[in-house]
Amino acid sequence: MRFLSESSGKRIPCYRVLNENGEIITGSDYEQLSEEVSVKIYSNMVSLQMMDTVFYEAQRQGRISFYLTSAGEEAINIASAAALSADDIILPQYREPGILLWRGFTIQEFANQCLGNKDDYGKGRQMPIHYGSKKHNFVTISSPIATQLPQAVGIAYSLKMDRKDACVVTYTGDGGTSEGDFHAALNFSAVTEAPVVFICRNNGWAISTHISEQFRSDGIVVRGRAYGIRSIRVDGNDVLAVYSAIHAAREMAISEQRPVLVEALSYRVGHHSTSDDSTKYRPVDEIVYWKMERNPVNRFRKWVERNGWWSEEKESELRSSVKKQVKVDRIFHISIFFIA
């Protein structure tokens, strides 16, 4: 008689390419990025960062009713988007606006949705940050946690039946994996062999619930094997690692017609939303450390600069351009128009 141990005793390793100084780790296996793509990724990360700052402040001023940021998780947003095709269908949770930004959604379109004005594609029927775009294959965000996961499997199975050269990519946080829909989706996808990539942003917190109070397993990655799904753990603050992992996961999902699970380790630097004060349940020093020392935007900038593709002059030009786009008085000038 022999019982399986509750733990292997060794943690699943985390795939990394860049160290904290933006240097390639010796022996790293990764997808090469061109100057054009690298600069676009960095520019989008900065744009997302600046948009978040302005929109968050707009909520505090009473211009919009609700907002949440992607602070600390910009690499997962933009790098994963860069690794996908425009034909791939996205089912997001609510911290993935960077994917829309990468695909061409404008800052004014983000503002329209948050305002719920006449130019909002949802005509004010959704609360702020619940973006959606048929044009960009981005299924509208819904508030209930993890409901998008089994839906993603269904859509992926339809792509499989139609023999499409595309996959479905769906996102969730670590808190979402505590929902029954997460487990149903993984099992459903494994049995149907659906071309779907599950990306879990393990940022340490499900609002105020730390991961130590959510599960006893070695994170999320080990759950893939339990359902017969190929899986990988990646440093979610490392642009090159995220890009390479998602690029490979997409190829597997389409060419082998199988689901893949990616656990991206990161940290939620901002509050969960404008309805939360995270300093009530985690130390300020911890937040500052991740914001300053483990910042994914700063890390990638060092790598881009090291390649000679970026400079202080270009940085100044970029921030000046984005600042004009996110100028509060310009993007929030339209009166709120709610549908009764």
From TrEMBL:
<dbReference type="InterPro" id="IPR050771">
    <property type="entry name" value="Alpha-ketoacid_DH_E1_comp"/>
</dbReference>
<dbReference type="GO" id="GO:0005759">
    <property type="term" value="C:mitochondrial matrix"/>
</dbReference>
<keyword id="KW-0809">Transit peptide</keyword>
<dbReference type="InterPro" id="IPR001017">
    <property type="entry name" value="DH_E1"/>
</dbReference>
<comment type="subunit">
    <text>Heterotetramer of alpha and beta chains.</text>
</comment>
<keyword id="KW-0630">Potassium</keyword>
<dbReference type="InterPro" id="IPR029061">
    <property type="entry name" value="THDP-binding"/>
</dbReference>
<keyword id="KW-0496">Mitochondrion</keyword>
<feature type="domain" description="Dehydrogenase E1 component">
    <location>
        <begin position="44"/>
        <end position="327"/>
    </location>
</feature>
<comment type="similarity">
    <text>Belongs to the BCKDHA family.</text>
</comment>
<keyword id="KW-0479">Metal-binding</keyword>
<dbReference type="GO" id="GO:0003863">
    <property type="term" value="F:branched-chain 2-oxo acid dehydrogenase activity"/>
</dbReference>
<dbReference type="Pfam" id="PF00676">
    <property type="entry name" value="E1_dh"/>
</dbReference>
<protein>
    <recommendedName>
        <fullName>3-methyl-2-oxobutanoate dehydrogenase (2-methylpropanoyl-transferring)</fullName>
        <ecNumber>1.2.4.4</ecNumber>
    </recommendedName>
</protein>
<dbReference type="GO" id="GO:0046872">
    <property type="term" value="F:metal ion binding"/>
</dbReference>
<dbReference type="GO" id="GO:0009083">
    <property type="term" value="P:branched-chain amino acid catabolic process"/>
</dbReference>
<keyword id="KW-0560">Oxidoreductase</keyword>
